Amino acid sequence: MSTTPDPTTWIKSARSSANGSCVEMRQHAAAVEVRDTKQLGQGPILRLAPTGFADWIAGAKTGELDHLTH
Fold this sequence. Notes:
It comes from Kineosporia corallincola. By secondary structure, the protein is of the alpha+beta class.
């Protein structure tokens, strides 16, 4: 039995709050898609190349995007 989730299924972080204030992501075709959980699947989807997604995550981890949360 594999513990790796299906990358085509929408997932959200285990750290996300129970009130739905988070984002979900999945791999779809040759892109990583990101959407707002609050939109219940009806809102826009951000599509990034896998390398762009990796850069985005790396920037978030290093604090590069912190100015966007103020």
